[in-house]
Design goal:
The protein has eight helices and ten strands. The protein has 292 residues and is an alpha/beta fold. Bound molecules: zinc ion (ZN).
Length: 292
Amino acid sequence: MKMTGKRDNSNIEVIGFESIDSDKFDRQKRIPGWDQSKVLNATVMVIGVGATGNELVKNLALTGIGKIIIIDYDLIEKSNLNRCVLFNMENDIEGKYKVDVVKESIKILNPEVEILAYKDRLNDIDKNLYKKTDIICSCVDNIEARLEANNYAYYYNIPFIDSAIDEHFGSIQSVYSEVRDAPCLQCGISEKDLDLMWKKFSCTGQEINSENGETTRKIATIITTTSIIGGIQSQQVIKFILNLDHFKDYRKWDTQIGEPLIGRQLNYNGLINKFDIIEKSKDPNCWTCSYK
Ligand SMILES: [Zn+2]
């Protein structure tokens, strides 16, 4: 296409002309409603730093989140390396703790981010840690950890964002106790789910064949799915960080930043290239959110 005439730049606001290329956060600061100081002062907890957790922590670090708490007791296996952006394939990192390698990689990516790494199962961590975080995210592959994070987040009034992936499919759901009529993750758990609780599950709830409680079926995943879902999960984190003050003051979300997916589940279907959002129902007898 042949361009004719001069471009009219008269309506483009110039923000800090001198910092256009010297401020690493300049381009995101230009987004209406953005407040980098809120991002810098935020603490985000990420439970599970496998494939989706890698994407999430990478995005949070590059956005300039001040502090990230990472929790994962798993060691790195060779089969992790095709979809974990923070696990460098060149280095000899098999058998190392995932949290240690994530911490080292983030030091290179953005040394100004403080990473607190915990090599614990979720139910072994000091519960006071929840109170030190502004947002909680789970990127785990089992229902027990999801529900534990959901319950503590709800109890402490902390926004909680859960992600799940399986093959070409993924989903995101946020929970926030200040939105009183919105369901929590526990609301969507059926009696059947509870009966099967002690068995291992896949991310999207399919039962995994188990022997003595050990997982024998590995979930099929690919980095294209985990990066899409990790990207959306990190965007939900940013929405909460930038918008929470506005919501607390006015009981509505600033439309410049947009409303998080509270009470709704975003589903991604990579097979048919489709996203959809379903409304989730609140269980009036839910032991987590109905008695508060
Ligand atoms: Zn509930």
